[in-house]
C-alpha cells in the first residue's frame, strides 16, 4: 500500500480539488476502510453553494458511503479485514445524557463526518481511505451492492422519519417534497403499511418517480389546489399525518391546510428560514408538530431490509462519477435544470 491517497477537497463555495493526502492508519479501537462509493447529499451540495461554519474549508465532504475494511486495530474484535461496511457518520461523545439514553442523534457534543459541526473539521469519505472507531461501523451483507450500501445513511434518516408520529390506525399520509429524501420516505411509508400515501411536488419527473416508489396519489402543486385535492382524497377531513420534506418555509403553513384535526405534522427538511405561524392552528385543532432529525437504530434496520430483499434503493441512483470528476458532478447537481435524483462518486 502506498503512503498517499487521492482526496476530493472542498476549498469553499464552487471549489473542489483533487489532492494527495496521507493514508490514515487505524488506532487500536479503529478500522481502516477502502472507500468504494460515496453518495452526494443535499447538505454537501449546500456547502458547495454557500459558505457556512458547518463546512469550514479545507474539508473532505461526504458522509454517505460504502467500502471494505482493510485494517483493524488491535482492540477491534467483531470486525475483520475484507468485510463490506458502511458507517454511521455521527461522531458521538457516548457519555452525555442523550447518548446514555440511546438518543445519540440529539448529542450536543457530536461531530459529524464531512462537516465542521462541533467546531472541529472532521473529514468525510470523498477520498480513498478513512479510519473510524469500530463502534461507528455498520456491517453490510455480501448480497447488498456498494451502491445500495452507500444509501444506508439517508435510509436511516428517512426510516426514522417514516416512523415518527405514526399510529397503528393511520390511514393517510401527505408528503410535501419528492427529492431523494422524500422518495425514500415514500418507500418506507409503504413498507410500514400506510394505506394511502399522497405526494405533492412541482416537478412532474419527481412525481412520476414517487409513483414508481409506491405513492398512491401524486399532486403537482403548480397545476392543482393541493389542499382541495387532499380533502377530496381523505373524505374532507385531511390527512392523518403530513411530512414536510421540502425546505421551503411556506410548506409549514401549507401543512396546516392538509392535516386533519388531531393529526400530526412532521418536519424532516433542514429548513433555515424563519416562518410565521398562527399557534392557534396547533392548539385549537389539537395538532402535534414533531421534528425528525437523523436516526438511532434505523440505519441497521434498513441494512437488514436490504439484505432480505425488502427494500430497493438503487433505482434512485441516476449517475456515477469518478472521484477525479467530482467537481463536474457537483456542478451538474447545482444546475437548476438538472433532473438527477441521487448521484454517487466512485473512488
From TrEMBL:
InterPro entries: ADH-like_C, ADH-like_N, ADH_Zn_CS, ER, GroES-like_sf, NAD(P)-bd_dom_sf, Zn_alcohol_dh. Signal peptide: none annotated. One of its GO terms (molecular function) is oxidoreductase activity. It comes from the Bacteria. Keywords: Metal-binding, Oxidoreductase, Zinc. PROSITE patterns: ADH_ZINC (PS00059). Pfam families: ADH_N, ADH_zinc_N. This is L-iditol 2-dehydrogenase. Belongs to the zinc-containing alcohol dehydrogenase family. Residues 14-339 form the Enoyl reductase (ER) domain. Its cofactor is Zn(2+).
Amino acid at each position: 500500500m502506498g503512503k498517499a491517497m487521492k482526496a476530493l477537497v472542498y476549498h469553499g463555495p464552487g471549489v473542489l480539488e483533487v489532492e494527495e493526502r496521507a493514508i490514515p492508519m487505524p488506532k487500536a479501537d479503529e478500522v481502516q476502510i477502502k472507500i468504494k462509493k460515496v453518495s452526494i447529499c443535499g447538505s454537501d451540495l449546500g456547502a458547495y453553494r454557500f459558505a457556512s461554519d458547518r463546512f469550514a474549508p479545507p474539508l473532505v465532504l461526504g458522509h454517505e458511503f460504502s467500502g471494505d475494511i482493510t485494517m483493524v486495530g488491535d482492540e477491534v474484535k467483531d470486525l475483520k479485514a475484507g468485510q463490506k461496511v458502511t458507517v454511521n457518520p455521527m461522531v458521538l461523545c457516548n457519555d452525555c445524557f442523550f447518548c446514555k439514553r440511546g438518543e445519540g442523534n440529539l448529542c450536543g457534543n457530536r461531530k459529524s463526518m464531512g462537516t465542521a459541526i462541533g467546531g472541529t473539521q472532521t473529514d468525510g469519505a470523498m477520498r480513498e481511505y478513512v479510519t473510524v472507531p469500530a463502534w461507528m461501523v455498520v456491517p453490510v451483507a455480501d448480497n447488498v451492492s456498494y451502491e445500495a450500501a452507500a444509501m444506508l445513511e439517508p435510509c436511516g434518516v428517512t426510516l426514522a422519519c417514516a416512523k415518527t408520529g405514526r399510529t397503528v390506525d393511520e390511514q393517510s399520509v401527505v408528503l410535501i417534497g419528492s427529492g431523494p429524501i422524500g422518495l425514500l420516505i415514500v418507500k418506507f411509508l409503504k413498507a410500514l403499511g400506510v394505506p394511502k400515501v399522497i405526494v405533492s411536488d412541482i416537478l412532474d419527473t419527481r412525481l412520476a418517480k414517487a409513483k414508481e416508489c409506491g405513492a398512491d396519489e401524486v399532486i403537482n402543486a403548480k397545476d392543482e389546489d393541493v389542499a382541495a385535492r387532499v380533502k377530496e382524497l381523505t373524505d374532507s377531513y385531511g390527512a392523518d399525518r403530513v411530512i414536510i420534506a421540502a425546505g421551503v418555509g411556506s410548506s409549514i403553513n401549507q401543512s396546516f391546510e392538509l392535516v386533519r384535526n388531531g393529526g400530526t405534522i412532521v418536519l424532516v427538511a433542514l429548513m433555515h428560514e424563519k416562518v410565521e405561524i398562527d399557534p392557534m392552528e396547533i392548539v385549537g385543532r389539537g395538532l402535534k408538530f414533531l421534528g425528525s432529525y437523523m436516526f438511532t437504530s434505523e440505519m441497521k434496520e434498513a441494512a437488514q431490509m436490504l439484505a432480505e430483499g425488502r427494500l430497493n434503493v438503487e433505482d434512485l441512483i441516476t449517475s456515477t462519477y469518478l472521484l477525479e470528476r467530482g467537481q463536474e458532478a457537483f456542478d451538474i447537481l447545482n444546475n437548476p435544470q438538472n433532473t438527477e435524483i441521487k448521484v454517487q462518486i466512485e473512488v
